[in-house]
Amino acid sequence: MHKPITHCSGILAGLIAAALLAGCSATGPRFAEQPVPTGRALVYVYRPGNAAFIARTVGLEINGTRVAGLKNSGYVAIDVAPGTHDVKAAWDLWIGDRAIDKPLVGRLELAAGSTVYLRFSTSSTTGPGSVPGTFTQTMRWALQRVTPEAARAEIAQTSRVDVEGKPPDAPVATPAGSPPPIETAK
Q: Cα–Cα–Cα angle for 138, 140, 145, nearest 5°?
């Protein structure tokens, strides 16, 4: 007689877990291309849906100003002044997070009227551990420039997240030791 209760509690636990994880993905409107404002450039940053880091948010900065918190299956469109811009993507940290405190930083050169697509991707692999009966899990994340043709199929599956701040209008100077250009995915 207790078996149906156990089964129901398992279903209830599954429903609660599903509800909690649903809050981890972007919930805004689906992707819609927008025009580039006159005399500006447009940067789309998107994060394809993936189970790796599903509950985590990526903080996006342009020229040192936070512009968005990018959730799983989300995108943001940011209009910026033409010129050189530093882009930083870093996990919003939880208490005790040190292993993932490794931000990705790169540089973009943008012309007026241009549109650039940046993909923030995550992946994980699991393998046997060094001790019998254990396993290791390797988590990876990357920020890459993507061609418009490649990006459109992926970004169409994402939902908008709100812009939190506006980057400074002045492009950054190019000091020695500046971040490298963001590489284009192959």
A: 165
What is the distance between the alpha carbons of residues 152 and 149, in angstroms, rounded to a whole number?
A: 6
What are residue 91's DSSP bridge partners? 58
Q: Among candidates 53, 56, 70, 86, which has minimal Cα distance to 168?
A: 86
Q: Provide the residue ranges of all domains of the chain, joining segments of one domain with +.
A: 2-160
Contact 5, 78 (CB under 8 A): no
Report how far residue 45's alpha carbon sits from residue 60's, in angstroms, rounded to the nearest whole number.
9
Taking Cα atoms as reference points, which of 105, 89, 103, 121 lies closest to residue 181? Answer: 105
Q: What is the pLDDT of residues 125-164, one digit of tens each?
A: 888 888 888 888 777 888 999 999 999 999 999 988 888 8
| Strand 58-62 relative to strand 65-70, pairing | antiparallel
Q: Of 25, 117, 138, 12, whose CA–CA distance to 73 is shortest?
A: 25
Tokens linked to 56: 């985590």
Percent of the chain with pLDDT over 90: 38
